[in-house]
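Sorry, any thoughts here?
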Amino acid sequence: MVNQRSAVTISSAEGRWTVTAAILGSAMGFIDGTALNVVLPSLQQSLHANAADLFWVLNAYLLMMASLILVGGSLGDKLGRKKIFMTGILLFMAGSVLCGLSPNVTALIVCRVLQGVGGSLMIPGSLSLISSTITEKERGKAIGIWSAATTIVTMGGPVLGGAFGDAGLWRYIFFINIPIGLIAVFIVWRKVKESRDEDGDHAIDIPGAFFIAAGLSLLTFGCLRIPVIGFNHWEVYGSITCGIILLAVFLLQEKKSPHPMMPLNLFHNPVFSGTNLLTFLLYTGLGAAMLFLSLNLVQVQGYSQLASGLTFLPFTIMMVIFSGFAGKLADKYGYKKLLVAGPAIAGAGLLLLSLVKQTNGPADYWTTFFPGILVFGIGMAFTVAPLTSAVMGSIDDHHSGIASGVNNSITRISNVFANAVFGSLAILFFSGTLSGQLEKETLSPATKQAIIKEAANLGNAKVPDTVPAKERAVITKLYHQSFISAYADIMRVAAGFAFLAAITPIAFAKRGMKKH
């Protein structure tokens, strides 16, 4: 059982401080992802990185999060949610400082690993504090506030990142975490009481953490190597095969372990299983869409990094307007209808975005990207709070840390999947379109091969020096057309994932996705 102390309301001082600390702590982990998406072009040029390097900058953090966030959630339940939450914040801050000081892309990737370790303790701790502290009657409202606030801060990341990127200060994206983290630590230390599962054991599933980390890393490595060396190379099929085997071993480990980091019996609950599958599908589409939309805007459409960040403001506004309202609707009427309609609307928004071709830059924003971003934002606003409430409400309080950890791990796994698989697909789509267009050009085979090799850099592809001066403008145009074609394909696949997510509640919710 949970330690014996009464739950509090949001209207109480302790309840307000708890929600505030949870928002600040988790926001640090979320903001880095969206801010980095916008400044990837600056980072790529500053550190002389290729597209695969960029995906590893994103995935080094996400892999650690996906691997250890389950351990983080269970540690909070066992050793104290307040203690683990504060430890996570401090580690994340240390990793942020080192990321900001990284001299090259390899060092940055390594430091992102430390950030991921901190985030794996910090992010599940935020929701666990809310679920274990706030009364059940107001829990949906509290989670709605958390969802809205963290999403607002998260979507404010592109604006902040764009401003820093245009000023040549992309490293400050990491340094901004320091004041936020210090405030969060002070609030938790002074204003939030400790809570833990008093009856639980304190064992940690180290083998489980190793198997999932190694499995996901090998899968990611294999996927990102496909565009470079082809699927038939031993590095690719060997890595992917070993990754799948290790993930299967992870499931066996969790089944037989007396202290599993992911208790598989939780998935006997149809609501918990269904909402986590929905999370994976929806956030895979979301992760791919946000990444490639940002790259398209800056590298092809001619937006500054700040202008690119500002394009996401309608999304943020929709979250402000509708997230809290959606959380209340979920408390009153249940989750099912919202979790069908929300992802379906988001998918429609992604389809609209896939239709945008070459534009004249920010001047065309309102008639090109704005409608899709608006519809996409409305769909996500009616999904995030009900989805989070459904996950946390499906599991009893003393498993709140594990439930939060599993769902956050699924989110990170979906983002790893999006970066690795969609990154490879984008390069393949780009190369395929470019190859077809180059057949019409009268260039030497060696020059054509050099042009296609640049596809590994996606929108940052450079015209090789061997291309004659009179042909350079033509090749630049072909790069842009090929990237836009690849972008459209990626957005359509991402929309497909959102539509699959909309079907999930219908299939899984017959016995449970009711009002909790």
Remarks:
- The chain has two domains: 13-204+261-429+485-508, 205-260.
